[in-house]
Amino acid sequence: MSDVTAIPDLRAREAARKAPRPSAWTDHPLAQLTLVRFLEFIREPEALFWVFIFPILLAAGLGIAFRNRPADVLKIAAVTPQLAQSLRNEKLLDVAQLPTGAAEEALRTGKVALLAIPGPSGSVVYKYDDTNPEGRTARMLADRAVQRAAGRVDPVASTDQLLREPGSRYIDFLIPGLLGMNLMGSAIWGMGFAIVDARRKKLMKRLVATPMPRHYFLLSFLLSRLLMLVVEVGVVLGFGAVVFGVPVRGSIVDLVLLCVLASMSFSALGLLIASRARTIEAASGLMNSVMMPMWIVSGVFFSSQRFPDFVQPIIHALPLTAAIDALRMNMLQGAGVAQIGPQMGVLGVWLIVCFALALKLFRWR
Amino acid sequence: MGAALEVHNLRKVYKDVVAVDGLDLQVRLGECFGLLGPNGAGKTTTIEICEGLIAADSGEVEMLGMRWDSDASQLRQRLGIQLQDTQLAEKLTVFETVRLFRSFYHAGPSPMDAIGLVQLEEKQKSRVGTLSGGQKQRLAMACALVGDPEFLFLDEPTTGLDPQARRQLWELIEEFKLAGRTILLTTHYMDEAERLCDRVAIMDHGKIIALGTPRELIASIGVEHVVEFSAGGASKALTVSALGEIEGVREVKSENGSVQLQVTELHRAVPALLAELDRQGLPLTELRTHSASLEDVFVTLTGRRLRDE
After folding, report:
1. Nearest 5°: phi and psi at A245?
2. Do B92 and B134 fall within a single domain?
3. Contact call for residues B67 and B16 (beta carbons, < 8 A)
4. In chain A, what residues touch B87 (CB-CB under 8 Å)?
5. Contact at 8 Å (CB) between A96 and A106?
6. Those residues with Cβ within 8 angstroms of residue B178's Cβ, 6 or more apart along the chain or in another chain
7. Which residues contact A128 (CB under 8 A, 6 or more apart)?
C-alpha cells in the first residue's frame, strides 16, 4: 500500500471529468436499483424456496389428498340369505349377511348404514338413521335392488353421463386460491423484509445520502416485484395446468392485468407495514397479523361463503378475497374484466390508500 | 481560501439530551478538518446535520455556498459521504455495489476506477459479506468517492479496525487530501487526528472547547512533554509535593502508584527528577516519556480521558 502515491487518484479524477455522463439505460439509477433488488432476491435460497417451491409442494399435496375417487360403496346388512342375494345385484352396496343380534349391533355402531329385515307377508323392513345421508342413499339403493329382484321393470330407460371434467374439482378451486395466497405472501414478505433490513443496517440512510431520487427506491421494489411476478404466476399456473389440467378459461390478458393489480395492492400493503418498523421482529409480527386472518377467511382452501352472513361484507372488502374471487371467476368461469370489476375496484382502493399512507408515514432513517 | 462549510449557532436536542449546543464551525476549502471528541460528544449529530440527513432545531449550515433547504439535489451531487456503521448489502459483489452508487451521480470515475482508488481490484467479484472490516471500510470509501466529490464526510472511518487496516485507510485519506478534496472527519483517535488533520476542533457535550492546528492545540496547554514514572516499593512512600518544585514541571498527577508530570523542558526535568528520587532514597521502577498529544490537550481541558479504555 505504501508505494501508492496520489498520482493515480488525480489521473482518475481528470479522466472522470472528461467522461460523458453514462447514457446506457442499464446505468439508470432505477435500472440499477431494480437489478440489485433482483440479484439480492435470487441469491437468497430461502426466499426462492418459499416463493417457488412451497406453493408447488402445497398444491401437489392437497391435489393428491383431495383427488377424485369413485363413489363410495355403502355397507349394509341383511338377516336372510334371500334378501342378501337380492341386494347383492346392486354394485354400490356391500352386503353382509349377519344374524339378527349381530346385525342390530353393526347398525348401532355405524359399521353398516342400513339393515334389511324380512317383514310380514313378503314385505321388507329397512332400519336406518334418516339423518345420515349414507343411510338415506342406502335405503334408495337397497329398495331399488329388492324391487328389481322381485321383477319390477323401470318404465323409462336411462343411462348415466358422469361429470368429472376440469373446472369443477377441488384442485380447480385450490389453484387460484394458492395463486392469490402466493401473490400476497411474496409481495408482503418481499417488500417488508427488504425494506426493514435496509433500514436496520442503515443502508437506506446511506442511499438517502446520495443524490438518488427517493421515489426510485420505492419504485424499484415494485418493478422487481413485476419481474418476479412473471415467474411466480407462471410456476403455479403451469404446474396446475400440466399436472392437474387446471383450466384458464378467461382471457390471458385479463389474468395478467389482474395479477399485476393484485401484486401491486399487496406490495403497497407491504410497504405500509414496513413503513415504520425498525426491526425484523416487529415487521414479521405485523406481517403475520395482517396475513393470517386473510389466509383463513379469504377462501384459499375453502369457500369464504362458509362464514356467517354478517361478516361477509368485511370478508369481501379484504384484498385477498377480492384477488382470489376474481382469479377463480377468470380461470374457472371465463369471466371478463367487466364481471370482475368490483373485485378489481377493491384491489385498486387498497393500492391507492396503502401507498398514500405509506408515503406519508415512511421512515427513511 | 474560502469556506467550504460554514456552521453557525447550530442546536439539536433529542428528548432531554442536548446533542449539539450552539455550535459554530468553519471548514476551509481544501483542508482536512477533524472533529474530535469522546463518544456522545455530538460529533455524529453535527456531521449528519451538515450532510443534510437530519434537521437542526436551530442554526444555519452553508455547504459550498448552498443551503440544504433550497439546493439539496445539487449539493448531494457534490458530496461524498461515509456514514458510521452502514452495512452494505452482503449478497452483492463489490463491483455491483459501486456500480449502483455510481448510477446516482452525473459525473465521476467509472466503477472500476473507483474500486482502483481504494485498491479493491482483486475483490471486485467478491460478495460484500466476505470482506474483512478494513475492506468493507474501503468499499464504503469507494461509494463515497464514486461521484467525484468536492467535499468528503468521513464519520469515524477507522473505528473498529485493526492497526494495519487503519494505516491503510490513513494512506488513502492522505491521497484524497493531495487530490484537493475538502474533508471533514470525525474520530476519537488522537493519533488519527494528529496525522491527518490540518485543523482540529475538540468537542465535548455538544460544544467546541478548542480549535486550531494539532500543533497549536498542543502548544496551548503549555507543556511539551509528559513524563510518567513509578518509584519505590511498599516500604517507603514518595513525597509527591516535592516533585512540583522541580524546574520545568507544570503539573503533577498521581494515580495508582504511577506519577505523571507535564514538563516543558525534558532534558532538564528528567535529571532533576532522578536527583530528587535519589534524595528521597527511592529506586525508579518504571520511566516513560512522550511528547504532549491531543489526548493530553483533552485531559487538560476536561480532566477526563478521551476514551474509556
Report:
1. 65, 35
2. yes
3. no
4. 201-203
5. yes
6. A6, A9, A10
7. A107, A113, A114, A115, A135, A136, A138, A139
User: How crowded is the C-beta side of B261, counted as CA atoms within 13 Å?
Assistant: 25
- Given B96, B102, B113, which is nearest A12 (Cβ)? B113
Of B192, B213, B234, which residue sits at a domain end?
Answer: B213
**Residue located via cell numbers 503533577:** B252
- Per-residue pLDDT, A167: 67
- Residues sharing a CB contact under 8 Å with residue B95, sequence separation 6 or more, in sequence order: B111, B112, B115, B124, B125
DSSP string, A131-195: TSHHHHHHHHHHHHHHHHHTT---SS---------TTSSHHHHHHHHHHHHHHHHHHHHHHHHHH
**CA-based nearest residue to B103, from A95, A93, A29:** A29
Domain containing B252 equals 222-291
Q: Are A96 and A102 in contact (CB under 8 A)?
A: no
Q: Which three cell numbers stand for residue B206?
A: 455538544
Structural domains of chain A in order of their starting residue, each with its CATH number: 29-65+166-361 (no CATH), 74-149 (3.40.190.10)
- The pairing of beta strand B79-82 with beta strand B258-263: unpaired
Quick one: pLDDT at residue A91? 80
Q: Is residue B305 situated within a structural domain?
A: no
Say which CATH number the domain at B33 has.
Answer: 3.40.50.300
List per-block mean pLDDT (blocks of 10 residues) for chain A, which spans 365 residues: 43 49 76 92 82 80 70 80 84 85 87 87 86 86 86 83 68 89 90 90 91 89 87 86 86 93 94 91 92 92 88 94 94 89 95 92 87
Nearest to A262 by CA among A307, A323, A204: A323
CB pairs A-B closer than 8 Å: 114
Give the 3-state secondary structure of residue B204: strand
C-beta atoms of B107 and A16 within 8 A:
yes
What pTM did the predictor assign? Answer: 0.76
Whether the CB-CB separation of A320 and A349 falls below 8 Å is answered with no
pLDDT of the residue at A285: 93
The list of chain B residues with pLDDT below 50 reads 309
Grid cell digits, residue A73? 360403496
User: Among partner residues A10, A203, A211, which is closest to B86 by beta-carbon distance?
Assistant: A203
* B112 in the same domain as B181: yes
Report pLDDT for B49. 93
* Residue A294 amino acid letter: M
Phi, psi angle pair for B263, to nearest 5°:
-130, 155
CA-based nearest residue in chain B for residue A45:
B91
